[in-house]
Design brief:
With 302 residues, this protein is an alpha/beta fold. The chain is built from 8 helices and 13 strands. The protein is globular and about 60 Å long.
């Protein structure tokens, strides 16, 4: 049994065919469509091109969904609605839809941690910050949209306005997109620094967490601010959910450098957890493929 999967982000959309053993048979990427018509047309094209190669279709979306109605409702980075019942040959029995953070967390739990832990939180870093909550071995959805971890409020700085309209959301300060923006700004200040040269070559914001690079004073301050707000988020989540492990994924997971080590050091230095241990922090074992593998895991297990 194969699953045709789509992992939709604010900037790009991954798609492919995944086997029941979670083997990636084919994989592609395209720019995220600009509206519902473009979206439906693209999915139809991929379905038609692969109609003999899959049994189920599963789509992971970055925002609010209505599973019962098979609709994507809204997200801070994709603000138009998509009614998936408009797909050609729509088959309710073999169609799966969920939030991208949910499916990524579910895949990590089912495939890598279910024999060790029951409570897992995952944050996915990209254009924004997605989130997924696994509690007692099941995805926690609340009334349907729980897990928007990127929108916890961690700052009252009016300059840090999120795409959702609120001020101080976690993703407005420490998404992977923000890391890249900060590296670009720092490169303009000192184009000859070690960080600027590395960023010029690689073009990824996570280079800021490479401990082998000697940072300038300005660069160090920027990194410490990111660690401060990300730590505030993680500590707050722990106090709410009492989870056993955090998994960090998304586009940065292919090259996280020393982010985990820096986070753990910062948290243990600045926070105290009496009679408790702070959860483990791990990088997604599926790296940047966690979304498509998560969509497949959903279709194969629910």
């Amino acid at each position: 049994m194969n699953v045709l999967v789509f992992d939709v982000g604010g900037t790009s959309m991954k798609y492919g065919i995944i086997s029941e053993k979670l083997e990636i048979i084919t994989k592609g990427v395209t720019e995220t469509p600009n509206n519902e018509i473009e979206f439906i047309n693209f999915v139809n094209e991929i379905q038609e091109a692969n109609q003999e190669n899959f049994n189920k279709i599963s789509i992971a979306m970055p925002g609010f969904i209505n599973k019962k109605e098979n609709k994507y409702l809204y997200g801070t980075n994709i603000k138009y609605e998509v009614d998936f019942k408009k797909l050609s040959n729509f088959d309710q029995e073999n169609f799966y839809l969920d939030n991208d953070g949910n499916v990524a967390a579910y895949a990590e739990y089912i495939q890598n941690y279910k024999d060790k832990y029951s409570n897992l939180l995952m944050l996915t870093f990209g254009t924004g910050i997605g989130g997924g909550i696994v509690t007692n071995g099941k995805i926690y959805r609340g009334l349907g949209s729980a897990g928007e971890l990127g929108h916890i409020l961690v700052s009252d700085n009016p300059d840090e306005t999120c795409n959702c309209g609120k001020v101080g959301c976690l993703e407005s300060i420490v998404s992977a997109k923000k890391w890249t923006e900060k590296c670009k700004e720092l490169s303009k200040i000192d184009s000859n620094s070690e960080l600027s040269k590395a960023f010029s070559s690689l073009g990824i914001g996570s280079i800021l967490f490479d401990n082998s690079i000697t940072l300038t004073k300005e660069e160090f301050v920027v990194r410490e601010k990111i660690l401060l707000y990300l730590s505030r988020g993680l500590v707050s989540f722990f106090e709410i959910f009492n989870n056993e492990i955090f998994v960090l994924g998304g586009s940065m997971a292919d090259k996280p450098y020393d982010l985990v080590e820096l986070l753990i050091e910062f948290i243990l230095k600045n926070y105290e957890f009496k009679s408790r241990d702070f959860p483990l922090i791990e990088i997604s074992k599926f790296k940047s493929d966690s979304g498509i593998l998560g969509a497949a895991t959903l279709a194969l297990n629910e």
